[in-house]
Amino acid sequence: MKLKRYAGKLWFCILLYTVVSISATVASTVSIQVLQMDQIHSDVTESSLIVEESIIDYLFNQGLIVCTSPVIISTDGTNPGYTLALNDARSGSVDYLIFVTVYFDTKDSLSPDAVILSNINSAQWQIIRVSDNKQIASGKHSPRILSETDDSSAGITSFGKQIGAAVKSGLPQR
Q1: Which of 71, 72, 99, 155 is disulfide-compatible with 150, CB 3.0–4.6 A?
Q2: Exposed, middle or buried: residue 122 (CB in 10 Å: 0-12, 13-18, 19+)?
Q3: pTM higher than 0.70, yes or no?
Q4: DSSP secondary structure, the chain, as one string
Q5: What's 126-162 look like in SS3?
């Protein structure tokens, strides 16, 4: 009797291992690099971190294996982390590198340090296939504030998920 129970558990473990192994070979691996374009802030803002986290969560929930690099800040319009992020993606056997540039416009804001959606002007993204360093998709989103509740951290989260959905649609299906 104990042998039957052990054999059942063994088959379950083999089946589970097989399912996990197949899923791991089918799932795409992506790395995300967020660039904060901001003329005012010299530190990474909470808003940038919320955008990054929302994109990561969305893509992970869609079945992708997601890794990330720390958010980079630029005040002069350059992308100082492009080469480093690409090299990290190559060394980590990542399939696609996703660059997301979040543009802030707080010069007319009454609360430039607040975590509100109205401080974000737009976000631009591009997907790079790491194997050949080719851009395979790109896009741009501007936030929409339809109500006061949208102009909050919840609105930033929603905006990040919209970017995640757009990025997901630009990735090849596996």
Answers
A1: 155
A2: middle
A3: yes
A4: -HHHHHHHHHHHHHHHHHHHHHHHHHS-EEEEEEEEE-SS-SS--HHHHHHHHHHHHHHHHTT-EEEE---EEESSS--TTHHHHHHHHHHTT-SEEEEEEEEE--TT-S-TTS--GGGEEEEEEEEEETTTTEEEEEEEE-----SGGGSSHHHHHHHHHHHHHHHHHHSPP-
A5: EEEECCCCEEEEEEEECCCCCCHHHCCHHHHHHHHHH
Residue by residue, pLDDT tens for the chain (174 residues) are: 444 544 455 455 455 455 545 445 568 999 999 999 988 888 899 999 999 999 999 999 999 999 988 898 887 767 777 788 888 888 888 999 999 999 998 888 888 888 989 899 999 999 999 999 999 999 999 998 888 878 899 999 999 999 999 999 999 987
* Residue among 77, 55, 62, 71 at smallest CA distance from 160: 55
